[in-house]
Amino acid sequence: MRKIIILIALTFSIITAKAQQQAPVNQYALSQNTKVTTANGQPYAYAEWQKLWATNKYKLKPTNPESDSTAFTLILRDTVAEAAEFAGLSPRQTIFFKRGNHFVLLNMQDVNGKTITAEELRGKIIVFNFWQVASAPSRYQIAELNRVADAYKNDSNIVFVAITTDDKAYVQEFLKISPFNFNVIPAGAAYFTYHGVTECPVTLVIDKDGNIAFQSLGYNNGAVPYWVAQTIKKLKTAK
């Protein structure tokens, strides 16, 4: 047991050290240096793709979702085709959590200083996202996760929480260029350690009984937000 604890501590210390080597957040912003093309590879002018993306009818797909890519494809949303594609994929499972297991809730403080207690979360559907600013797959999920959170923003029985190891000031700067519509918990290394999380992004959906209904690791070809939305729908209709 002692060896396991030491291994987790050492592994997480590596993650924390990497997180502390923080690059300027501006390097993660979508800017005029970002290369955006059509599905056929034709380049967009910056003003053109920004205008189309702002309509919310399009989404940006990274050329290489596992690296800090500055190249994206602008794709017209097709919910039917997307559902067919994602339904045929299987989530990459984490070794940190197991579906059906109970998830221990802890008190947290968000980036705005608001305290979120374990007691107020009990009995609700909760979406957890463990992420880091420097993690490219984490950042690439944000825009689509925001759409899921926005769809349930008026439902007090569904809560969205994003826990990062990055410090508060750094997260605040990042959120100015890339809003994350979850309850963002900064300086959350203790939560990563408590749950044994050593990689990110990790996404979970917790049911009303406090059990893990969905879990995944990584970008998963952009399917995670779809799976989260589908899991929430199932939990809401379950008797």
Query: In CATH terms, what is the fold-level topology of the largest domain?
Result: Glutaredoxin
The CATH architecture designation of the largest domain is 3-Layer(aba) Sandwich
> What would you report as the Rg, rounded to the nearest angstrom?
18 Å
Q: State the name of the first-level CATH class of the largest domain.
A: Alpha Beta
Strand count, sense and barrel status of the largest sheet are: 5 strands, mixed
Verbal overview:
The protein is an alpha/beta fold. The chain has 2 domains: about 1-85, no CATH class; about 90-235, Glutaredoxin (3-Layer(aba) Sandwich). Helices cover about 35% and strands about 20% of the residues. It is built from 8 helices and 10 strands. A 5-stranded mixed sheet has the order 8-7-6-9-10, sandwiched between helices. A hairpin with an 8-residue loop joins strand 2 (about 60) and strand 3 (about 70-75). The termini are far apart. Mean pLDDT is about 90; it is low at about 1-15 and about 15-20.
Short note summarizing the structure:
InterPro entries: AhpC/TSA, Thioredoxin-like_sf, Thioredoxin_domain, Thioredoxin_ResA/DsbE_sf. Keywords: Signal. With 239 residues, the chain is α/β, with parallel strands linked by helices.
